[in-house]
Design a protein that fits this description.
Number of strands: 0
CATH topology: MetI-like fold
Structural class: mainly alpha
Radius of gyration: 21 Å
Shape: elongated
Largest sheet: none
Strand content: under 5%
CATH superfamily: MetI-like
Number of helices: 5
Length: 132
């Protein structure tokens, strides 16, 4: 079950991440590459020093959002019996017969990770927006 969960998350994340990176590279105007060529940069140097820094500024916010979404979706691993926060909360609830506090604590764990991560993404987006 662990192999299935890791494979599913890996393939899903990889496909979204590669599409994000590809589209961010393609969003750079062709004139940037032509200007780098006119400045005497080789193809590799043009990509390394001109295209990639601009594409990274475009790709980082959606990639960080993807990381947050993947963390939140990790609770779906419970469906295929991978032990994680929600499954642990469920088992603890079955022992105590008091589900509400246990699931509220699990929600607090998710919120304590997701909310600061979202705030970090927002601050990075603002910082990168100044340079685009």
């Amino acid at each position: 079950a662990m192999v299935a969960a890791v494979s599913a998350f890996t393939w899903s994340t990889a496909s979204y991440a590669t599409e994000t990176i590809r589209s961010s590279i393609q969003s750079i105007p062709r004139g940037q590459l032509e200007a780098a060529s006119a400045a005497g940069l080789s193809g590799v140097d043009s990509f390394r020093f001109v295209i990639m820094p601009q594409a990274a500024r475009i790709a980082i916010p959606p990639l960080m959002g993807l990381a947050i979404i993947m963390f939140q979706l990790s609770s779906l691993a419970y469906v295929i019996t991978i032990s994680e926060v929600m499954q642990s909360a469920y088992f603890l609830g079955t022992k105590t017969f008091n589900y509400l506090p246990v699931f509220l604590a699990a929600a607090a764990v998710y919120a304590s990770i997701t909310i600061p991560a979202s705030a970090l993404v927002t601050s990075i987006e603002r910082r990168l927006a100044k340079h685009v």
